[in-house]
């Protein structure tokens, strides 16, 4: 259903008018762990050389056992689905001034 909703939204609305930052705050309502886990099945295995990653994935494993689930994949992986979204949004709000290539030619 999300794909149909997104396609419909993009046909009838301009992406420039979307509240991207506001939507990022609510990302846990739109990005489902099942989509992540379908590809990353071994994520709950302690297999990283980075102990911090192992510790966080253990916390996630504990949290999904609770009914009041507090952690989701996007709790930590904030940019999943939209690579460099923060940078893109910043550049839209603060566009680069000129082209540095012009300075080199002078």
UniProtKB/TrEMBL annotation:
One GO MF term, please? metal ion binding
InterPro entries for this protein: Multihaem_cyt_sf, NapC/NirT_cyt_c_N, NapC/NirT_cytc_sf
Cellular component GO terms held in the UniProt record: cell envelope
Query: Where found?
Result: Cell envelope
In this entry, which stretches build a coiled coil?
none
Q: Does the keyword Heme apply?
A: yes
Instruction: Say which domain of life the source belongs to.
Output: Bacteria
Q: What is this protein called?
A: Tetraheme cytochrome c
